[in-house]
Each structure stands twice: as C-alpha cells, then as structure tokens.
C-alpha cells in the first residue's frame, strides 16, 4: 500500500530518460550507444520531426538547437557526458537508477551505472 507521499513522488519521477537528437549528429550517436549499454528506459525524440521538441531544446540551450539534449525530471543537460546523465538519473529518478543496477539479462548488455 502506498502513502500519499510515495504516490506523489512516483507521479513526479520520470519514467524514462528523455534523449533529444537529430540525424547526422555524431555526439548523439555516441551518447545513444552509451545509454543503450545502461539499459535505462530512454525516450528518443528527433527534433527535426517534432517542432515542440526543437522548441524545448532551444529553451534550455540559449535559443540554439544543440543536441544531444537530455532531460531527467527537472534536470536539463545540453551535450552531456554519460556520467552527467547517470548522476541526474541517480538524483532525479532513483527508481530508474535501481533498474540500471540490476544484474544483466542473459545475452544482454551488463547494466552500467558508474559511481552509483
């Protein structure tokens, strides 16, 4: 049974890492590959296909469409390192961090959360 407090926390905790990218971006490809190794749930959004996504990126990137841009709950990171993303997951989405720390599935990538 959940208490109102735990229900409120669950409602505000993100269900996935939001990864904003565009085709042809080498920085995006590198971060995507690193995120895939974590097996964290990631919602990918192509800013060239979604004008609202492009506007969201511009809002946190001084008016520019800099990608990759990653959101973890209230944390917005422009061109972050994997370590910065994982630190934000630990701080703003501890349930996701717990998922990443579970043992690897047979035949899958080893889940990776350095510094956790």
UniProtKB/TrEMBL annotation:
One of its GO terms (biological process) is cell redox homeostasis. It comes from the Bacteria. GO terms for molecular function: electron transfer activity. Residues 17-73 form the Glutaredoxin domain. Signal peptide: none annotated. InterPro entries: Glutaredoxin, Grx-like_ET, Thioredoxin-like_sf. Coiled coil: none annotated. This is Glutaredoxin. The lineage of its organism: Bacteria, Bacillati, Actinomycetota, Actinomycetes, Pseudonocardiales.
